[in-house]
Amino acid sequence: MSDFQRNRELLGVRLRELRRNARITGVALARQLGWVQSKVSRLECGKQTATREDIEAWVEATEAHPDLVQDLTSLLTNIESDYAVWRREFRSGVRRKQLNFLRLEARVTMIRGLETTVVPGLLQTADYARHRIAEQPDLHNIPEDVSAALTARMQRQQALYDTSKAFHFILMENVLHNRLCPPDVMRGQLDRLTMASGLPNLKLGILPFTARLPVAPLNGFWIFDDALVTFETIAAEIHVRDPDEVALYTSVFDRFDQAAHYGDNARAVIAAAFKTL
Fold first, then answer.
1. Any idea what the CATH number is for the domain that residue 188 is in?
2. Which range marks the domain in which residue 8 is found?
3. How many domains does the chain have?
4. What is the pLDDT of residues 10-47, one digit of tens each?
5. SS3 137
6. Same domain, yes or no, for 60 and 134?
7. Which parts of the sequence belong to the HTH cro/C1-type domain (predicted)?
8. How many CB atoms lie within 10 A of CB 249?
9. Dihedral (C-alpha) 211, 212, 217, 223: value to the nearest 10 degrees?
10. Backbone φ, ψ for residue 115 (5° rounding)
11. Could you give the CA distance from residue 146 to residue 261 in angstroms, rounded to a whole number?
């Protein structure tokens, strides 16, 4: 279970306790608040995240101590930090997301990433990155700030030349073939990967189509200093900090590491992909 879901369920338990202590049924509470009864059930079971307004209304309706609003809001803050909904995250445009990554990458010394679909942002050319970033404004109905976001993403790549940091990326071979940009842009991107594979503090592995996969790669993920794992969905970014779960992702990454090709073998896979464009 992710930190997000654990915190959401904990908040639900606290809300249920308040309702029961007030000897109010879920149906009666919903009627009092002007909600459908299913909302009360979803909040208490951790199936829906309460808003601050929900918490304030719940505390007032159950006649609980007003100080509980602050306690429960603190839980809500943890939830929101672990499950950053992209519409909220991107409210002011795409650049903000890139700056958040910039700050995170500046704090850590070891970054590992498994990518199943796209070239990692830290290894993207400006042209490839522009096509990736340009998807976001229309998809999420947010301000168009592609140029500013692109500048921030390129700024992030300066970390690759900081020898106090170490990077380890594993890409599935389909990343080299996915048509997310025009062929000429992809050629430049593959050249960039070849050059990056020679950086002294960067280990680049490729999982060829012929590799026997140790586990099903359900999604890509990033590990920061054995303390945080992040992965993205279309709608959100998930943060996992539970030590046992971080260790699980690290174990999975290590298994893919054993199956990946490196050095000249990895560059041969990249070269073969180049010839298909």
1. 3.30.870.10
2. 3-82
3. 2
4. 888 889 999 999 999 999 999 999 999 999 999 999 88
5. helix
6. no
7. 15-69
8. 20
9. -70
10. -115, 130
11. 34
